[in-house]
Amino acid sequence: MRSKDATWLVLFDRGKGNAPSLVERICGAVREAVAAGYLHQGDTLPASRVLASDLAVSRITAEAAYGRLEAEGYVVRRVGGGTFVAIDATHGARQNARAMHTRARLSARGSALVGTGGCVDARIARAFTAGFPDPLAFPLDVWRKIATRKMRGDPVDLLSYGDPQGAEELRQAVSSYLFQSRGVDCSVDQILITTSSQQALSLIATLLVDPGDDVWLEDPCYPGAHTVFVGAGAKIHGIPVDGDGIIVSSSGEYRGPKVIYVTPSNQYPTGATLSLERRLQLLGQHNLRDTWIVEDDYDSEFRYEARAVPALQGLDNHGRVIYVGTFSKALFPSLRLGYMVLPPALTEPFVTARTTSDGHPAQLSQAITAEFLSQGHFTAHVRQMRRLYKSRCDCLAEELHRYAPQLTRSAAVGAGLQITVYADLPSDLDVAREALRRGIDLRCLSPLYLGRAKRQGWLLGFSALDNETIRVSARKLGELLFTT
Ligand SMILES: Cc1ncc(COP(=O)(O)O)c(C=O)c1O
Question: In which band, very low, low, confident or very high, does the pLDDT at 4 lie, cut at 50, 70 and 90?
């Protein structure tokens, strides 16, 4: 295989200026391509001589990159046979992880966690990167002014260690935002400020799940949740989802799972809203006594065609719902701030556990975010983005209708930062590989399914794209579908 034919080289080009060395750029491109599902277990990589010549790097560089990837378990090299991808982000990773971790001598828990392949987010938005707020639309001038004001004088507190539960002014601002906008009923003491939803999910898995415990996940499921529970050694049960969200009654013989993870406002990835009937079913099961329900409310700010549905947490009379939120979508992902609303019995254990990882989020960003919320900038920004993203969502829907009418939209209601579409094709991954070669980023649906019944399709992000880019890219996607 000539390396010029390899789609992952787009990622190599993109790494220009980011990675410290050519070796790291090559490694980074392969790792990213594996994580995104563009390279699969068994795929052949070009011979190091070919790679060196095509990338205009020395043979030593190409060899060093392959050597490092082999040590990390990403590739295997067979003398005279070639270099092959050793892991698959979805299925193969776990098997290969065993070999990789025997070498690295990780703990059983560490091996399980690393064996999931982790979850890597795209760093730049292009058509159709999913889940990306528009960085150019963020009111940086307001943010900068608040930051300057905060840093004036001697901001000793901002330069010191902070509260492991999160800055009190931010917890206050978050609690009143959640009460007003999401119907979340909580005191400031129940809020834990995290660096992300992902951190919240990791804490939940660490503190509440023992190896072998039953965990229900929506099927298909958000991989960030799947990875942490697999990493915790949980016994995963994929519960099917339809247009009304998770089908609680299809869980079969009820054995009282430790955790049920749901995305009620905007099911990831199908976009279904959990109906009121199902919400009540979920909360009303008499045998939920030992079960925690995790409500991941990651992008509920963005709902375009219907009124926002209040959070599940507000309906919970038994203190079993753990609410998880993030500023990654409503503000910007690099902020690394999220929050949890914990049932009172869990607050202290969670705060203690967080002291053993990162201590607390950065003081300065917490202070700026608190003021951004309390002065009304957050609400104004979200209102503006809702308008902007709605127009982009409509534009994508129209262009897909025009150029790719064979795709069916999974949810009737416009919400979030992407449209999920189903395709009647044998492999969404094959199309995504070809699309990447043509400069289009497609997040595939099939790897997000936990059971055998997988649907093919993609999550098409629109929020960070202007209408012209949406138009041109939808046409390219249509052409691609026509030829495959
Ligand atoms: C369902 C879901 N939860 C959480 C997140 C990410 O949040 P964070 O960046 O805070 O980890 C995402 C991002 O795409 C998501 O889709």
Answer: very low
Sign, CA dihedral 353-358-359-360, equals negative
The 3 state secondary structure assigned to the chain is: CCHHHCCCHHHHHHCCCCCCCHHHHHHHHHHHHHHCCCCCCCCEECCHHHHHHHHCCCHHHHHHHHHHHHHHCCEEEECCCEEEECCCCCCHHHHHHHHHHHHHCCCHHHHHHHHCCCCCCCCCCCCCCCCCCCHHHCCHHHHHHHHHHHHCCCCHHHHCCCCCCCCHHHHHHHHHHHHHHHCCCCCHHHEEEECCHHHHHHHHHHHHCCCCCEEEEEECCCHHHHHHHHHCCCEEEEEEEECCEECHHHHCCCCCCCEEEECCCCCCCCCCCCCHHHHHHHHHCCCCCCCEEEEECCCCCCECCCCCCCCHHHHCCCCCEEEEEECCCCCCHHHCCEEEECCHHHHHHHHHHHHCCCCCCCHHHHHHHHHHHHCCHHHHHHHHHHHHHHHHHHHHHHHHHHHCCCCEECCCCCECCEEEEECCCCCHHHHHHHHHHCCCCCEECHHHCCCCCCCCEEEEECCCCCHHHHHHHHHHHHHHHHHC
- Ligand 1 centroid to residue 298 C-alpha, Å: 6
CA of residue 358 relative to chain centroid, distance: 20
For residue range 126-156, list pLDDT tens digits in order. 999 999 999 999 999 999 999 999 999 889 9
Residue 282 token pair: 């979920």
Residue 185 structure tokens: 């009923």
> Distances in Å between the alpha carbon of 384 and those of 306, 325, 387?
17, 20, 5
The separation between the first and the last C-alpha atoms of the chain, rounded to the nearest angstrom, is 21
Residues with CB under 6 A from ligand 1: 131, 196-198, 222, 224, 263, 268, 296, 298, 326, 328, 333, 338
- Whether 1 and 46 have beta carbons less than 8 Å apart is answered as yes
Residue 459 sits at φ, ψ, to 5 deg, of -100, 120
Residue 121 Cα to ligand 1 midpoint, Å, equals 9
Interval 9-46: pLDDT, tens: 666 666 666 666 888 888 888 877 777 667 777 778 88
Q: At what angle do helices 22-35 and 59-72 cross, to 10 degrees?
A: 40
Structure tokens at 92: 């193969």
- The distance of Cα 280 from the centroid of its chain, to the nearest Å, equals 27
Nearest CA owner, ligand 1 atom 7:
197
Cut 0.90: pTM above it: no
Compute the distance from residue 187 Cα to the ligand 1 centre, in Å. Answer: 24
Mutate to test the pocket of ligand 1, among 132, 174, 193, 198 (most ligand atoms within 8 A of CB): 198
